[in-house]
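User: Could you check the structure of this?
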Amino acid sequence: MLEFKQANPLILFHKKVKAYIIAGPYQPTNISYPASGNNNHRRYFQSSWFKKFPSWLEYSPEKDAAYCLPCYLFGKHYGARNDGKNAFSELGFSNWKKVNNEVNCAFVCHEGSIPNSPHNLCVKSCDDLMAQSKHIDKVLDRHSDETIANNRLRLKTSINAIRWLAFQVCAFRGDDESPGSLNRRNFIELIKLLASCNQNVHNVVLENAPGNAQYISPSVQKDILHIFARKVRATIREEIGDSKFCIIIDEARDESKQEQMSVVLRFVDKHGCVQERFFDLIHISDTCSLILKTEISSVLSRYNLDIQNFRGQGLLCMFDATCEVLEKSTEEGNFSTRGDASAAYDAITSFEFVFVLHLMRNILEVSHDLCQALQRKNQDILNALTLVSTTKTLIQRMRESSWEAFIKEVILFCEKHEVEVPDMNALHIPRRGRTHKIVDQISVEHHYRVNLFLAVIDTQLQEFNGRFNDNMVELLTLSSTLDPRDNYKFSSVNKVCELVERFYPGDFSDQEKFHIRMQAQHYELDVPNHVELTNLCTISELCQGLTKTGKSLTYPLIDRLIRLL
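Assistant: Sure, the predicted structure tokens are below.
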């Protein structure tokens, strides 16, 4: 911002003046000069006068008057107008009688006998303008360079003061920062201290700075702080790299009672040390889960933090700490916060919440490896399908034989954390329900075992069966024949033909179905030995490699099948 130079009208004006000087005074000699004066003694302008005053005298045939070029250009700056001697600069001189009056010659008198006469000053201005080292644009450039240097020093001083105060977690501003105040608070007083230690700084800051470029306003301070914050967050992001991380979220209301969300990242650095870094402070309109989720997602995406690397700590490990925070908020928060905290505390300390929390943790633990395998870029299709089968088996086993162990674990947790455990043999009363309205009278144990435990597990099994039915499993199995990993170890001509016949019969004609077998045999011998088609990991990379090497034209049917996949 400081180094931009705007077009200066003064520079443009002096360039025009310079063109006049280069052209020189207008001195026409091959014309008839008109007569002036009375009929008895006619007088004329004489061309010989040009030789006596060649550097400045010029003549206007239109006005029949003489002018001084330097005074015409610069006379108004040196009093030629104010002292009544503006004949040669504006009005024009035509009293030829006074020209040949020796020492009283009007032209000689105009030049003046002293170096600082108006005429001589104008001549000097012309000489200065024409001198390369004194060009006005050069002078202004030097002035502009000096301004830039001063601005940089002034801004650097403010940056150093802000960086020191931020690092020391000190307040910046106060109530009275006016020049007459005895204590202008931390930021201004630190600027004054730096100025007292360095004369160059003293010459450009505070009262010695231009009124519109002091770089001490609150908005400038905030802009610099935001730049620091972005650099710190970028450094933290670089430190995390591709490591796994988790986030710690907490409420941090400001002095005006506006809700804020503090975000802390926890991760293991490249040296194997656990680090916790304060990352951001976000103003939020509400503390509902949807708004919090949106803001967290925004922060993660803004700094390219991969959600796949995000790991939760689990509420089970922080159960006591969470309850303590909610209890404290219930006692010390404002009216709205106390109500929300109280409701949240009642919810998480209920048996049903603890039951569901344990159930979801167990199911997610069983399906974790499969989820990671399916999300992995360089996934092994056959191994992933094996994980599908084993995951379904484990969930089915959980359904059939883990109820007793599971309910025992939940009750032990509740007893440890002082959560009330209901009587499992008692009649289950639905929330907000009345006993005389209950049609199907069931026990508490039946409700948790059938309506929750078995129902959730059955939903998971249905999801697996829907997403990984027999046709889908067969498609993925046959697709592995085109997997380029491990030098095409899954390649099979028969599977290629079966894949076309079973899943893409309408995309190949009968003749193409016959020909693809022979093309697959050539492909199986050729492609794995091509230097640019080895060490590929995905079918997508294979498709790109075939196009790059021209093999897509050699094996168009195989290329079509890959693109269909």
